[in-house]
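Record pair follows.
FIRST:
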Amino acid sequence: MDLNTVTFVARPTTREQLPTWTAGDAWLAGGTWLFSEPQTHLTRLIDLTDLKWPALTVTDNELQIAATCTVAQLDALPCPPDWIASPLINQCCRAFLASFKIWKTATVGGNLCMSLPAGPMIALTAALDGVCTIWKADGSVDTIDVVDFVTGDQSNVLMPGDLLRSIAIPLAAFKRRSAFRQISLTPVGRSAALLIGSLDEDGLRLTITASTKRPVRIALPTLPDTDTLEEAILDRIPDNLYHDDVHGKPAWRKQMTLRLAEEIRAELQGFKP
């Protein structure tokens, strides 16, 4: 869609060249949502393409995902055999309500910043203990866990002019046993519940997304029994935190959350360390 109120596109190549943020500005990365509907409040786009951030960088301790990394680039990442949780990457990429054409343009950072409950990159990075690096509008740098970055349906911690730079995932998170569950009202519909569990010597980590307005992480010191896990979910998620839209009512999402969590628990029981 043409954005006919936009009169200028800035193309910085360094952080120092980022223009001072003003009303009517928007960051442009993939633009798959930005160009999908009218944006009559916008007058300037700040294109991040020429910053040329490396899409994916593997260090001794972490995987660094640039906010501008596309879904297709992440999906194609070759993972070593000891990254036993790496199938989560492909599973979450395929949880998008999007075609492969969108994959080549849509970005990981854009999915986080849209902060939709069903955002599968939110689910992936939250479940793998991802940490966001944020370039603040005042020139400083801040970090925050992905699970705390998203605060609600289409809301997050970013203030005007803040820019999500990258997401870092510790390599240790890829070395945990994992289980993935997702459900939609229709075969190719938006996720109504997307849960990821992981297990190591420190216990169970269960990340709940899509059914809730924001990500919820539940950590238990050991693999629980059915009743203990259900009690933990009921204790952590009040009824008003379940999302309500055409893709699923809160009561149904709650039941699916409990069901999928039990499926994850049962699957991981076979991998108990």
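SECOND:
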Amino acid sequence: MSFDWRHHKAAIWRSGPPDQERGSPWTSDVVLRAVRAYDAVALDDVYSVDQQKRALVSNTERFLGGLKANHALLWGAKGTGKSSLIKAVLNHFAPQGLRLIQVEKSHLSDWLTIADLIWDTPEYHFILYCDDLSFDFGESSYKGLKSLIEGSIEMPPPNMLMYATSNRRHLLPEHMHENLDAHVEDTEIHMSEALEEKIALADRFGLRLGFYPFNQDAYLSLVDLYFPEPLSTRFVDREELHRMAIQFATARGGRSGRVAQQFHRHYSEDRSGSRVGMQ
């Protein structure tokens, strides 16, 4: 199967038989579907994560330049810009030949098939992107991730990297008893085997970037960017804007760029659908 990467910068990997009962348009030989509507987020639209942004941009520049680059894991609190940063990197570097293939974690073992499709397209560099990556006890799909990053008998093509996001630092759930199983030998701390295995899975990503909840100042600064002067007629002044924004975040259990955008959507009078940024 061929795919026209000249006119598409991203595709979604679809694997498995078509769902005829639900009227799926897929056929068994269609495994890549072009993205129909792109999120136009730019690097300047992703706020409060400047260090993470610089690191991921630098890694991607090395990748596109033919230098050694690392697989990247963006982990941390929800709504803090992990997915938006990867989409912004794609939008920024697409003119230089960067392309993206989104794949679900259950299909990570398909990476060899995906590799077959891109081996003969050295003019493009591909990010294999898995959003919200995590594994529960009993899942075996993480083995596909291990073979992708470390390689099996065949290494991944030089024009493919893995970028993933996760709410879990170590991708797998952790329990207190695993920390209690740690012991000391000759003044050295030895973790339990279960905990070592979990940490080792995330450690396979050479670039690990943490994203943390917004403090109130960062949250209100982003709200201010969404609501420049003149303010919406719904607010008497900026003090009232901030008070309502804080109430909005409290009702949703926390502050983040995503909550700031949702607040803007709820109160904005702009019908154009324009925005400051997406977190």
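COMMENT: The chain is about 35% helix and 15% strand.
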